[in-house]
């Protein structure tokens, strides 16, 4: 996320960043139009830019109103020629108040940047998403999770721009090196787009039934970003609802519209009972048990269900979709027991508990309180909805519970596998291992993308280590143990698994998963199918569970190697200051072993355990929700195992003093010490493990991903 403190320090004389909306500063010029925020006229463009159409839109005539951050980002990304620096700040407050907001721009001479300790260069790189001021961090303009875009462009006087047209989303360091390698002279200009964390790349997530990335789901579920329904989606929803109304008017019989459900699908329901049919469905299926899902998971469910309805294949009224979105934005989060779904026909029980709050029943979390669903709506200024034909079924049929739980778990897993590179590199250094096995030639000879990425990450983390240089010559060891040497192969394979599972989840997030589906238009039809079946997700969750369990296993082997005096290259037994009198980290490895054994049990596949339900009508089910819950627990355990390795590796590094590891490893060591102190004598380790796991989960080590 954007470090506002760093920005404030950097622009000490430039004022404060606002929290929402849009303000464009073009070389100190701005024009407001009718209080709509900021309008950029053609004259202003001609003074600062030479551009044409971008993406089929003439941006010389584009009006950028407050809040339209997406349009602004698209515009900026399309620029190729810049004669003067441009800084864009978000802030409707500034625009509305008519302040003349001044902002500085910076240019860096090539010769100046060549010195890698240039403070300005490192700050720009850090703000662009690299973290920790890493010199080779990527800075893809306008799209970084840090909420800051960084683009490098050269002055027109330096070189004919046509030679580099289109090269405007580059790694800053590689771009500078490339320029220098051509023997060119001149200046590079950094163009910055600041987007506060609460807004990131957009003010609101616009729902149009599109696939949602895991990052977008995280932003809404965890960071509480607001959502909005696209106008086109509302039109589609109304059109599909019109087809349902026509069917009812014609007296046709259609499953889920005017029939019973499941085994009772052959029972025709009279017109005056259709509303009762829908509310009966919701109440009768709200039989979930167990602990409630977290508020983040419930929030993700609301988001995903709203996005599915926005596709326009469900036959509901626009009002239902708008209420779900309003619940997200108001923070009305249904209380949803986590157990009771077999994953076909979708997540019936969890979604029924969600639907209860929609109709003013059930329970919800609101403002930190667990209260009646109707009361939560009232406090939020919302009104419950009386369901009509098809709407109860449209709320219940779907895979949104397993998708919500699984998406948040996989997002956490992706962080963990990247940070296992960090903990593994720290252990390698402590054990005086060699990075030779990470040589890019080895991994290009077996070019799995995840393996290559892991090896590159490990090499970056280890670059410049004094410890490595201390045993480069005269070391009689030929090669390291597998838990050290094979990190790219194992960590990389886990990356590949999670990449695949992420793709499944993102596709599912934009898929129509209820039944029947409503297709308006010239070839109008309402068709029963099986998109509610969670098999694609269930298989994926089992796959991820196996991979994460193995990641925990290789991590534990490194923990043991750090502690075991028979194989830890001269480190004190169990990293204790006074072995024998003190037990050091002995119990930490035992705890890791216990956690991994539980992971091994949980890694047994859920997807192979189908049990027929609903009188044999639903005779094959996915058990995807079971898979999602298991995966969440496994990820939580692996976070703890990772925490233990970081604790042990940080302690072990201190026994190699006065030698230092690489800059990045030493910075990570210092970050560990900000969470827990050195183990000088035996103390209770449970709080340390919990604190480190919380720090990992909270993003405290994300700068080393």
Total count of helical runs of at least 4 residues: 26
Mean pLDDT: 77
Major beta-sheet overview: 5 strands, mixed
- The end-to-end distance, rounded to whole angstroms, is 13 Å
> What overall geometry do the principal axes of the alpha carbons give?
elongated
Could you name the ranges where pLDDT drops below 50 across 5 or more consecutive residues?
1-202
Beta-strand proportion: 5-15%
Round the Cα radius of gyration to an integer and report it.
28 Å
Total beta strands? 16
* Class by alpha and beta content: alpha+beta
Helix content class: 40-55%
Give short descriptive properties of this protein.
705 residues, three-stranded antiparallel β-sheet, disordered N terminus
Describe the structure.
With 705 residues, the chain is α+β, with helices and mostly antiparallel strands. It contains 26 helices and 16 strands. The strands form 6 sheets. Strands 1, 4, 5, 6 and 7 form a 5-stranded mixed sheet that branches. A 3-stranded antiparallel sheet has the order 11-13-14. Strands 2-3 form a two-stranded antiparallel sheet. Strand 13 and strand 14 (369-372) form a beta hairpin. The two termini are 13 Å apart.
Brief summary:
With 705 residues, the chain is an alpha+beta fold.
Helix/strand layout:
Elements: H1 4-10, E1 23-25, E2 37-39, H2 42-48, E3 63-65, H3 69-78, E4 87-89, H4 92-97, E5 107-109, H5 110-114, H6 119-130, E6 148-154, H7 172-181, E7 187-194, E8 205-207, H8 214-221, E9 227-229, H9 231-250, H10 274-285, E10 289-292, H11 295-309, H12 318-330, E11 333-334, E12 337-339, H13 348-358, E13 363-366, E14 369-372, H14 373-379, H15 391-396, H16 400-430, H17 440-444, H18 449-462, H19 466-470, H20 482-485, H21 487-509, E15 517-519, E16 525-527, H22 535-563, H23 586-602, H24 624-654, H25 663-675, H26 686-697
Parallel strand pairs: 4-7, 8-9
Antiparallel strand pairs: 1-4, 2-3, 5-7, 6-7, 10-12, 11-13, 13-14, 15-16
